Amino acid sequence: MDTIVFLVFRRMRAPLLSLILVYAVAMAGLALIPAQDAAGEPATMSLFHAFYFVSYMSTTIGFGELPNTFTDAQRLWVSGCVFATVAVWIYAIGTLIALLQDATFQRAIRERRFRARVRGLCTPFYLVCGYGQTGSALVRGLTDRHLHAVVVDIDPERINLLQLENQREYVPAFCADARSPAHLEAAGLRHPLCQGVVALTNVNETNLKIAIAAKLMHPEVTVICRADSHEVEANMASFGTDHIYDPFDTFALYMATAIQAPCLTLLFDWLSGFGGERLKEPLFPPTRGRWVICGYGRFGKAMYKHLKEQGMEVQVIEALPHKTGIPEEGVVQGRGTEAVTLEQAGIRRAVGLVAGTDHDADNLSIVMTALMLNRGLFVIARENQHHNHQLFDRVGAHAIMHPSLIVANRIGIRLVNPLLSDFATLARLEDEPWACELVSRVLGLVGECAPHVWEIVLEPGRAFAVCDAIARGEPPTLEILLRDPQARDEHLPVIPLLLARDGARWLLPGPETELEAGDRLLCCGREWASRRMGWTLQNLHALDYVCGREGWREGPVWQLLAPLLRRARDH
């Protein structure tokens, strides 16, 4: 039985039975008490007339006595019935109002409304479990790119916050425990348009249960999880979780790449940014020397591992080394907020500092104290709470590690531009001069704003004209696709970054590359260029024009205007 109907019948059972009983007694009394007609002859009231009279009498409307004037006995009986029926109606209405205000009933209504909205979705969406700092950043990133999401979170305050935020797309949200398979199903896990499940709660075990439930209930769906420990990460990978993101390892690898190849890191920053933003400045971490790490937790251990792999000298400061462990070089016991502790760690001859504790106040204090002792430090600060972002911007850190934003950014890239992750993997195999040359090309193409990055899929629904040409045996080259459909002698400000075909990947495909049906192409450039390229992909006349044929001038209007345009051009 429907939950709402069940709650109504359960809570209203006693009031309804009371109403039926009082109505039945009142009607029976009116039918049994002797009455008289207008001529003074004995008469009886029918059950129909009794029901009609009791119906308006109990609501105190008062239409008069019928079908005949009442006797004193009837009026006495009616006087008692008035009080009884009014009392039972007050009881019923009061119970109904209490039911409408009941938290369980309101939750059932919200759940039914949520289920209806999810069933009514007609565009692909992602199911996001957890609307903390990571989930909110991911949802905003998806909606800013006009993608859809459904949110489930156990905290009602977060759901209320989501409903107050001004998202570009409507986001259905439900306050529930995402570990429950029933709640996941209600949120659209089995919906045919569900593109993936993203588990972003701050509890590793919860993310693990969500991943298991998603894979068992919908094996084909993509599952992406956040994991803050290697044990949980290995467990998730064991049953086929598609993508697992550890913010600490991700940032540590990012910094290691910045040490080895700053141009490559800068390229990734530009391509993963939001189109139209100002380009980020490059990072140049020191490539040799002593680093001091304050905090040997999950982040500190990840930074320690990658810095040691780069051949750095590392000294760790930890307040509770008996809990976190001790590295092979030993540890300076303390929080790092005191100048004495930093002096013991050799901060004056260090080149880099990592303030990586779990407390933002300690990290800010560490940075400020360390910079007073050594102004030449390259500083990495961990920001645990996003509302402290302004403080970290002012403290003088060169790089800020925010776990939630890192995971949201990486997952957003995976969902919005899957080929960009493949490009990053292949680009890491290239040398630094290759990355520097590509950075120069991108900079010359877009100026001071971040490039717009998009994917092209050569299938009839997205590239009708190109697929039609391929089917006719006239496959266009990539150079044709890069021509401007408004002026074919000019090229669009676009750089093809990656070509994916039948499982193979090619970086920076050449202009002579012939396109095939099913190809996927990753491009970057100006946003208006992507719209112009869309014309060529979809419009047969635009494709004919850039191929050298007069595709734009085949219509009757162009045939009338062509002589005038030729004379104007000749003059």
Automatic annotation (TrEMBL):
UniProt keyword Transmembrane helix, yes or no: yes
Q: Which residues cross the membrane?
A: 16-35, 47-64, 76-100
Tell me what topology the record assigns in the membrane: Multi-pass membrane protein
Q: Which UniProt keywords apply?
A: Membrane, Transmembrane, Transmembrane helix
SUPFAM superfamilies according to UniProt: NAD(P)-binding Rossmann-fold domains (SSF51735), Voltage-gated potassium channels (SSF81324)
Q: Boundaries of each RCK N-terminal domain copy? A: 123-245
In terms of InterPro entries, this protein maps to: K_chnl_dom, NAD(P)-bd_dom_sf, RCK_N, Trk_Ktr_HKT_K-transport
Where located? Cell membrane
Name the Gene3D superfamilies for this protein.
1.10.287.70, NAD(P)-binding Rossmann-like Domain
User: Known PANTHER family for this protein?
Assistant: POTASSIUM CHANNEL PROTEIN 2-RELATED-RELATED
Name of the protein in its database record: Potassium transporter TrkA
Q: Which organism is it from?
A: Marichromatium gracile
Q: What is the lineage of its organism?
A: Bacteria, Pseudomonadati, Pseudomonadota, Gammaproteobacteria, Chromatiales
